[in-house]
Amino acid sequence: MRQQESLRDVSESSARVVHQAVYRPGRLGSQDRHLAGVPRTCPSCWVKRILTKQYWLLVGTEKNWKFSFGNGNLWGLKDFRESLALWNLLQEGDKILFYVSKPVSGVIGVATVTTKFRQTQPLWPEETRRNAVIWPLRFEFDVEYCLSPSLWQSRSYREPNLQLITRMVFQCIPLSVVQAIRSHFGLQGEETERSQGPSLASTAATLPTINHGTLKRQLAEVGRIQGFLAEEEYAIESNRLDVVWRRVERSVPTYAFEVQVSGDIYHALAKLKHAFDLWNSRIFLVASLDDKPKFDELVTGTFHEIEQRVRFIQSNYVAELHKRKTSYRELERTLGIIV
Predict the structure, then answer these.
(1) Where do the CATH 3.10.590.10 domains begin and end in the chain?
(2) How far separated are the first and last CA of the chain, in Å rounded?
(3) Closest alpha carbon to 157 in 198, 217, 105
(4) For 134-191, how does the pLDDT look when each residue is reduced to its tens digit (9 = 90+)?
(5) Which CATH code fits 201-335?
(6) If you ran DSSP here, which 8-state letter would residue 209 be given?
(7) What are the start and end residues of each CATH 3.40.1350 domain in the chain?
(8) For the chain, counts of helices (H) and of strands (E)
(9) Homologous superfamily of 2-39+52-184
(10) Exposed/middle/buried for 115, CB within 10 Å: 0-12, 13-18, 19+?
(11) pLDDT of 230-284, one tens digit each?
């Protein structure tokens, strides 16, 4: 009975979140219209959401889940105002529970959201047939645990009351249900904070200054090592981004980088903001430490809309990252882990 009440509560909670996010557009400033009703000045419930991670139940068919796992762990939602409101609340680091609809009717795994973006190119088979984007609200995830397809019927987590709320294909879910699911799969707790290893600050300070072309090449190579399709000088309307990483060929950039050695930080930020507005890309400015004060001034002023989205990377760190990534890859090859 208690779990049934919890599931009923979360269904009602999701409905309240959608109602607040969709039907209170008066709280928006003109620059925030793209957030579909998420208020710029957050009441306490929104602030609490920003500071915590959420578990989401994601419902799909067997066919769609298999396609997702075979195409870079990617999912999409239709651009309805209810789903858009929830998608806007979804954060990197949130957890997803994979629910497969009939005939499985159960949870098969857990993942962590890595990024989200708007898709402008068809990807799913039905989109390809129609030559139109049907599910533009995309996000990618890293799988923490997932059953093999041959075990979906026999080993999935099933709870009769869980089926009561799966009419909503995407919604938040209470911790009590999450704990039961994790226990079912032998997952005893969340992953603890990873050790960061040697400090970058101890090594990057000794590295020489690197030119613009080298930084772009190194960023692109790191992206390829990470498994992305990395490109330099990627067209964005009448401009070009220095480096982008895409998950698959028919995808928009997941990551976008602008490299400034002695250039114009204002226009670099303008291009990054445009990439974020168009694709919801994760955006990065690579520059010297001397440029950090100007960066801080611009992102708290002219570009305040992306203050919480754009990251500043000291240019020397790129060389250290490239060095460590290539060394790690060579070690894997030596051990025969990759070819």
Answers:
(1) 2-39+52-184
(2) 54
(3) 105
(4) 999 999 999 999 999 999 999 999 987 776 666 678 888 888 889 899 999 988 665 4
(5) 3.40.1350
(6) P
(7) 201-335
(8) 12, 11
(9) ph1033 like domains (3.10.590.10)
(10) middle
(11) 999 999 888 899 999 998 777 889 999 999 987 789 999 999 999 999 998 999 9
